[in-house]
Specification:
The complex is a heterodimer of chains A (115) and B (115). Helices cover 0% and strands 49% of the residues of chain A. Chain A is mainly beta. In chain A, the strands form two sheets. In chain A, strands 2, 4, 5, 6, 9, 10 and 11 form a seven-stranded mixed β-sheet that branches. Chain A has a four-stranded antiparallel β-sheet with strand order 1-3-8-7, with no helix packed on it. With 115 residues, chain B is mainly beta. The radius of gyration of chain B is 14 Å and the shape is globular. Classes of the chains: A mainly beta (115), B mainly beta (115). Chains A and B meet through strand 4, strand 5 and strand 10 of A and strand 4, strand 5, strand 9 and strand 10 of B.
Chain lengths: 115, 115
């Protein structure tokens, strides 16, 4: 168990640029989640994959956001035409299904700053 | 939709004192409940979870929580605070009414430990 890894740890970009983040989950975990966390808040759900299928997306996820999980392994989260309001910590987590009670294993996040 | 409410955005205690962090959930069906801890610039780490069975759950680092259905609560306690316990703590819920796989997090409580 090498844990969930996220890359990069920090990203500074100018408004209007596109950014892409990568998440490598724990290898045997079939579920993968993306959350966004702003200062002083709890993680807010963005999207969820079971294997390679994206099963749920939050209303927070505007059409500028897209996520993929090809072959059910790593995942990428892309933000197009970034805005200052996108500045946040983006957290990836994985878990092992089936069942509802499986805890999440989080990566250390990617902190995005949009200038 | 299920949700959790964490009372108090900040809790301050002296080293050696009792720690009590409050969490109430909203669900007509008993859900799965979790407490996570987050240290600065890191992801969340699972402290403990309640799924079924014993209502008093013991976790890591001396923390425990009690599921009280009548009060819809899952408060986190530790008998004696240590300086290293200073962190952000999040309560989360999944399952329950609707049976969502997607954990929903509270806004968090920052634990401050004074020497």
């Amino acid at each position: 168990d090498t844990g969930v890894s996220q890359d990069p740890r920090h990203k500074i970009t100018k408004r209007g640029q596109n950014v892409t983040f990568r998440c490598d989950p724990i290898s045997e975990h079939n579920r993968l989640y993306w959350y966004r966390q702003t200062l002083g808040q709890g993680p807010e759900f963005l999207t969820y994959f079971q294997n390679e299928a994206q099963l749920e997306k939050s209303r927070l996820l505007s059409d500028r956001f897209s996520a993929e999980r090809p072959k059910g392994s790593f995942s990428t989260l892309e933000i197009q035409r970034t805005e200052q309001g996108d500045s946040a910590m983006y957290l990836c987590a994985s878990s092992l299904g089936p069942g509802v009670g499986s805890p999440l294993h989080f990566g250390n996040g990617t902190r995005l700053t949009v200038t | 939709a299920q949700s959790v409410t964490q009372l108090g955005s900040h809790v301050s205690v002296s080293e050696g004192a009792l720690v009590l962090l409050r969490c109430n959930y909203s669900s007509s069906v008993p859900p799965y409940l979790f407490w996570y801890v987050q240290y600065p610039n890191q992801g969340l780490q699972l402290l403990l979870k309640y799924t079924t069975g014993a209502t008093l759950v013991k976790g890591i680092n001396g923390f425990e929580a009690e599921f009280k259905k009548s009060e819809t609560s899952f408060h986190l306690t530790k008998p004696s605070a240590h300086m290293s316990d200073a962190a952000e703590y999040f309560c989360a819920v999944s399952g329950g009414s609707g049976g969502s796989y997607i954990p929903t997090f509270g806004r968090g409580t920052s634990l401050i430990v004074h020497p």
